[in-house]
């Protein structure tokens, strides 16, 4: 997400609040004072800009205030520029109670057109005489002059800031590493009881420096790692029944088509090569390599109901001597369907079948974010998962099973 920052002499990633709008809304005998404030985040062309709507109750009694479902942002400089729609974050919109002397706020974000550059002002519908002005940058042209040449090569992905230390592990981590496949820990009563998965991807080229300027397509090149383990609590010594290790090299093209603020659909494309093995020896050894193509077609809005279809077409590469008939059970095509609300209840199903249409396996799960109402306080998802069919684990891909587990998820 882009972020606003204060104008300074460097002219890089600058933003300011051109006019601070105050609106007094009468609610019975109470008044709620509404203000806008910047987030302090930089704004990038083609990225997202953000601002806060703050509601203060200065009275002696509780008051109610309704945050808008959306805020229309109109560019000031030209009549030909499209209107932009700002949507609320995970806490959503709607009515809420404000205690005496207290305030609440909601974060709103909107997509910044890739053609924007320089200082731009927008008017916000519903906030008369209020404008937000911010500076849009395509990308930094260079590191500060005080930085020597060798960090330019190694640290080109580190986020630049006013801090003198460019070695910011937290910023570096957040900018380059992100979630990939679902990350969860679930358990049930049937052996193997527990199943957990960790997964992340790492962006090899950042969005500044030579790749972004001369070969921006390189920013889609990533490496990923996924590990899925089955843990048998019921067995003596509680061993791990099987684990699949899946390193991967992939290329991701987000918003290949659609995905603009006014669109209700988006097409992403991804392709790559993946190795999968279980690390065992002898007759329990399993390993395979695949090349795949996976488009993802999404319908709906970020703030509403969504449907995403992710078919994957694969081809097996190299030696399959550990599991020569794997295609009879995994086949060459799979489909993952995700339905629900991005900030609410969501269900998904992964269907995989053998090359002759036999030995199907279905992995279905449902999840709900505890950072949403009514809990709000927990940064996890509650989730439940059911598997039926063949191939829950790489070791037992020829065996059929039915198992239900529940637990929590950190990423879905």
Quickly describe the structure.
This protein is mainly beta and 412 residues long.
Question: What attributes does this structure have?
Answer:
Immunoglobulin-like; globular; twelve-stranded antiparallel barrel; nine-stranded antiparallel β-sheet; 4 helices; Outer membrane phospholipase (ompla), Chain C; 6% helix; 2 domains; mainly beta; 412 residues
| Name of the CATH class of the largest domain | Mainly Beta
Which secondary-structure class do the elements indicate?
A: mainly beta
Q: Which of globular, elongated, flat, extended, rod-shaped describes the shape?
A: globular
CATH domain topology of the largest domain = Outer membrane phospholipase (ompla), Chain C
Rg for CA atoms: 25 Å
| Percent strand | over 45%
Q: What is the average of the pLDDT values?
A: 81
Name given to the CATH architecture of the largest domain: Beta Barrel
Beginning-to-end CA distance, first to last residue: 19 Å
Helix and strand element order? EEEEEEEEEEEHHEEEHEEEEEHEEEEE
The count of β-strands is: 24
Tell me what the structure shows.
This protein is mainly beta. It folds into two domains: 15-136, Immunoglobulin-like (Sandwich), CATH 2.60.40; 180-411, Outer membrane phospholipase (ompla), Chain C, CATH 2.40.230.10. It has four helices and 24 strands. The protein has helices at residues 149-154, 169-176, 210-214, 326-330; strands at 15-16, 23-27, 30-38, 48-56, 63-67, 71-75, 84-88, 94-98, 103-111, 118-124, 131-136, 177-179, 183-187, 194-203, 221-231, 240-258, 265-277, 287-300, 305-317, 333-341, 346-352, 361-369, 381-390, 400-411. The strands form three sheets. It has a twelve-stranded antiparallel beta barrel. The protein has a nine-stranded antiparallel β-sheet with strand order 1-11-10-6-7-9-4-3-2, with no helix packed on it. The protein has a two-stranded antiparallel ribbon with strand order 5-8. β6 (71-75) and β7 form a beta hairpin. The longest helix is centred in the middle third of the chain and has 8 residues, at 169-176. The chain starts with 14 loop residues before the first strand and ends with a strand. The model is unreliable at 1-29 and 141-166 (pLDDT under 50).
């Amino acid at each position: 997400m882009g972020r606003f920052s204060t104008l300074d002499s460097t002219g890089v990633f600058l933003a300011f609040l051109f006019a601070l709008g105050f609106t007094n809304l009468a609610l019975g005998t109470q008044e709620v004072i509404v203000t806008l404030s910047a987030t302090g985040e930089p704004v990038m062309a083609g990225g997202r800009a953000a601002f806060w709507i703050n509601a203060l109750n200065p009275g002696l009694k509780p008051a109610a205030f309704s945050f808008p479902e959306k805020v229309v942002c109109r560019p000031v400089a030209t009549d030909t520029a499209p209107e932009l729609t700002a949507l609320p974050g995970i806490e959503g919109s709607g009515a809420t109670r404000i205690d005496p002397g207290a305030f609440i706020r909601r974060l709103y974000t909107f997509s910044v057109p890739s053609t924007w550059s320089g200082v731009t002002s927008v008017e916000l519908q519903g906030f008369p005489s209020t404008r937000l002005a911010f500076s849009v940058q395509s990308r930094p042209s260079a590191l500060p002059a005080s930085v020597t040449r060798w960090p330019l090569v190694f640290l080109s992905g580190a986020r630049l800031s006013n801090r003198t230390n460019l070695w910011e592990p937290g910023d570096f981590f957040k900018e380059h590493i992100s979630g990939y496949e679902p990350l969860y820990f679930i358990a049930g009563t049937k052996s193997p009881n527990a199943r957990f998965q960790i997964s992340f991807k790492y962006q090899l080229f950042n969005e500044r420096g030579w790749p972004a300027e001369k070969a921006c397509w390189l920013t889609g090149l990533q490496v990923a790692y996924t590990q899925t383990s089955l843990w048998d609590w019921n067995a003596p010594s509680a061993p791990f029944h099987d684990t699949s290790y899946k390193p991967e090299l992939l290329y991701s093209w987000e918003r290949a088509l659609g995905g603009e603020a006014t669109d209700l659909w988006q097409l992403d494309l991804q392709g790559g090569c993946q190795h999968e093995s279980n690390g065992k020896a002898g007759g329990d050894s399993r390993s395979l390599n695949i090349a795949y193509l996976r488009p993802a077609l999404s319908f709906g809005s970020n703030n509403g109901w969504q449907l995403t279809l992710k078919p994957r077409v694969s081809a097996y590469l190299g030696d399959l001597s550990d599991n020569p008939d794997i295609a009879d059970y995994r086949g060459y095509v799979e489909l993952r369907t995700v339905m629900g609300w991005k900030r609410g209840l969501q269900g998904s199903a992964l269907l995989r079948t053998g090359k002759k249409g036999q030995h199907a396996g279905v992995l279905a799960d449902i999840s709900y974010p505890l950072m949403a109402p009514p809990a709000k306080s927990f940064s996890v998802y509650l989730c439940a998962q059911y598997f039926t069919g063949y191939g829950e684990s790489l070791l037992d891909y020829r065996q059929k099973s039915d198992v239900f587990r529940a637990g929590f998820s950190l990423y879905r």
